[in-house]
Amino acid sequence: AKAGVSFEVPKTYTGLVKNYLSKGGGGFIVTSMFATLLYRMSLISVYPLGIGDVLCYIGTRVFWEAQEWFIHSRWFHGGENFRAHPLFKSHDRHHDLPYDHISVEPLRLVIVWWTAILVPLILSVRFLGFLSPAIASTFFFSYKFNAFIYSIMHLMCHSKIPFKGRMKRARENHIKHHMSPAHHLNMGPNNIDRLMKTDSYDTRLHRRQSTGGARKE
User: Model's pTM, two decimal places?
Assistant: First the structure.
């Protein structure tokens, strides 16, 4: 199996956490998230926590939802027959596999991802003076936190843990996404999906059954 991919689908929360931390970049996401939080805490004597941090988190959350929808719509499923663009073929592999598998973001992908966010922040703080170190670190922590929520929710949607309520609905939506990749593009709240009218499963765009696809070792 590819790195970060397993057909040993967790049935318990303990198994889910173990899989997340031991496969792909899951452990790195958690470690780097807390490292960024500790860095922000180290600045409190100079930059106390305040309304700016709260607004930064809220703004980051809104940005994350919009970014998540855009990346899925335009890059992951924006090609012919809703296939991914060449740089994101790993997402096609995820959809080609049976639904009953788990995949965690590869470590290499996470490192490139974090670097793409960190470089503009450093430029904004050190050279442009656009952001304070405090707001930059709050944004980076908030971004990583939302990435963690997305990543762990994705793992939960592919697990066999029995859920109720919101998480059950999230899994149902994600199954529909695998069946109709142009819909249910947001892992969490469907605010952007509703706004962009991609929250309704369309059987005309049915491409793969949730248990279809070829199993690849």
Answer: 0.85
